[in-house]
Design a protein that fits this description.
Helix content is 23%, strand content 36%. The chain is α+β, with helices and mostly antiparallel strands. The chain has a single domain (5-130), classed as Roll (2,3-Dihydroxybiphenyl 1,2-Dioxygenase, domain 1). It has an eight-stranded mixed sheet with strand order 2-3-4-1-5-8-7-6. Strand 3 and strand 4 form a beta hairpin.
C-alpha cells in the first residue's frame, strides 16, 4: 500500500454554518461542496491541494456528536488517498492492524472509504480514501 497524498482533514463542529463563516470571513477561504452523508452534514473547504472537511452531526447521538461531547470540537481524523481501499485493508489486516471498517464503504464525493482504529495509528483516527 502506498499513501498518495493527504486527501482531507476532518474537523468536528457543532455549527456548520458558523464554521463556514469563520473560514470564509476570517481566513478568506471559500467553502465549496456541501453534502449530507448518513447522520452528518459535511462542507469542504479547499486549502491548496488538501480539503478541510467540516463535519456536523445531524443527530444528538451520532458519532460526531459523541466525539464532540467527549473531546470538544476539533480535528476528528486525517484522510489519505490510496489507489484501492479494499486492497489496503487486506494488507493492513494481514499486518494485524486494528481496523474500524473491515470493508470499504461509501464516503463523500462518491469515494470509497475505511478507517484505521486510533489504537493502531498512535491516537489518530486515520481514513483511507480511493476513487474506486
Amino acid at each position: 500500500m502506498e499513501l498518495k497524498k493527504i486527501d482531507h482533514i476532518g474537523i468536528a463542529v457543532r455549527d456548520l454554518e458558523a464554521a463556514r463563516r469563520f473560514y470564509e470571513e476570517s481566513l478568506g477561504i471559500k467553502a465549496g461542496h456541501e453534502e449530507t452523508l448518513g447522520e452528518m452534514r459535511i462542507a469542504f473547504v479547499p486549502v491548496g491541494e488538501v480539503n478541510l472537511e467540516l463535519i456536523q452531526s445531524t443527530t444528538e447521538d451520532g458519532v460526531i456528536a459523541k466525539f464532540i461531547a467527549r473531546h470538544g470540537e476539533g480535528i476528528h481524523h486525517i484522510a489519505y488517498e490510496v489507489e484501492d481501499v479494499a486492497a489496503a485493508l487486506k494488507e493492513l489486516k494481514r499486518q494485524g492492524i486494528k481496523l474500524v471498517d473491515e470493508r470499504p464503504r461509501a464516503g463523500a464525493h462518491g469515494k470509497q472509504v475505511a478507517f484505521i482504529h486510533p489504537k493502531s495509528s498512535y491516537g489518530v483516527l486515520t481514513e483511507l480514501v480511493s476513487k474506486k
